[in-house]
Every structure is written in structure tokens, then in C-alpha cells.
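pipeline/complex-builder :: batch 7 item 3
reading input block
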Amino acid sequence: MTEEEAIRIALGSRPAFQVSDAFVGRKAEKRIIEVVEDRQPVRDAMPEPGPVRDVVAWVVRLWHEIVWAEFAIEDATGKVVRFRRSRGAVLQEMETKS
Amino acid sequence: MSNGTLSPAARTGDEAFFALLRRELEQRGQPSAAQYLRKILHARPVSETKVGANTVVKYKVAQHLTDYSIRLNAADGETLSWYIDFLAEHGDQSMPPSAALETASATAQPPPGAQLQTSGYDSASGRTIYRARWKHEHDGLPVEGDFIEVLVNARARKAFACTRYWHTPKPGAPPAER
């Protein structure tokens, strides 16, 4: 997978994670990350303790002003294996929903 | 001999010693201080000898010097971090940075894949410290979450803290407890 492909996947995943189109990004970093296998859908929440696997992933951080939403995309499969967002982005989402 | 397996004679002597100190504190008008005796002092039996019908127990008495914190990985017992409180104080910049880095490196024992990320003097909570931090790269890729950090007291010329989150990545391997 190339960096550009990873960014495309992240941008395409925005709706599934309630991330607005205002969040954009142009960079991805390839890293080895740990993913907890907690048999839950990928979501922005601390996983329950459980077995861990090492994954080669592209980490794509999308920005909107000063808040961010981050996708980790597994290099081998193209799947989103982790999703996180900044506290400011969480507050923004809460304000949007209320 | 260890405190956890005191012989009857050693236990009797230990209790008598601390009872003596408690009475001493009471006589000096400091009875409330007695509750801290066993936190501050520790009597370790070093020999036990039969003399006729009696048993002579000799002790070494040690005084609490500092808190020493250590964190261990519950899964494998690996040391994650340690910290010696009293060595964290009164640091300065008297050590040349290269020498402080040598001290930090000797403590960190950076494994293959470790790359020095930052090093230098810093200030933390009003204390002058020397900090060195290593990141982890594996097959050319950064390993997220892995690092080693050592803090050095340059005046004492000693490391007083070390944190180590490190593992050998195995991408593609099945999930495992860590």
C-alpha cells in the first residue's frame, strides 16, 4: 500500500466514523502499532484489556482547524484497525448531536 | 535470615527492640511518633547463637532513606520503570552532557533498534535533571509506544529513574498477552 492509498482509505472512512468532510489530511506515517483484539468494532474508545498483536499500519491524521481524527490502516489488508480523535473533536461531535 | 521468616528468638528480639523505642518516645512526650517506627527503621537479624539456655540474636538496624518505586509487567515480570526519590533532588549541570549521556546509556542498555531521540539538561518540577530518551525502530519502521527514558542527577552522577516500554514486534503473529 502506498501513502496515497492509505490517505484515500482514511478519507473514505470518514462517514463510517462520523467524521465530517471538513477533516482533511495529506500525510500518513507507516509504523508498527499494537492493536488489542477485543472482538469489538473499531471505535474511538479505550479497548478492554486483551491479547495484542503487532500491525504494520499507515497512521493518517486528518485535521479540521485545531482538532484531529486519526485512522490506522493495516498495510496488508487496507482495513481500519484503530480510530482515535482529539478531545476537541469529541466535544465538537457532542455539540453537533445536541 | 529474612524478615519474612523470623525465627521465634529473632521475632522476640525484634518486638522487644521496637517496644523499647516506643517507650523511649513516650517518655520523651512523643507517643504519636511511635506509629512511624517500623516505616523508618528496620531491624534485620544477622546472627543467632545459643549461649547456655539463652539465644543471642544480633541485628543490623537500617533507616529508611528514600522511596523506591518500581513497576513490573504483570504478564512477564519485566521491569517497566523504577524511580529513586531522594536522588531526584539537588541536581545541577555539573556533568558534561557527554558524560551524563554515558551514565544514561549504561542504565538504559539500549537494545538493537534503539535510536537516541533526545538528550540534554531539562527542568522538571523545579529540579534540574539530565534526560535521555531512545525511540525504537524495527525494519526501518517506528514502533509506536516503545521508548526508553533515563533521568540522571548530574551532581550525584547517578541515574535516578528509568522507564522502559520495549518489545520485539512480530507483525503477522497471532495476538498474545503482554
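note: Residues 136 and 145 of chain B are 9 Å apart (CA to CA).
queue -> next item
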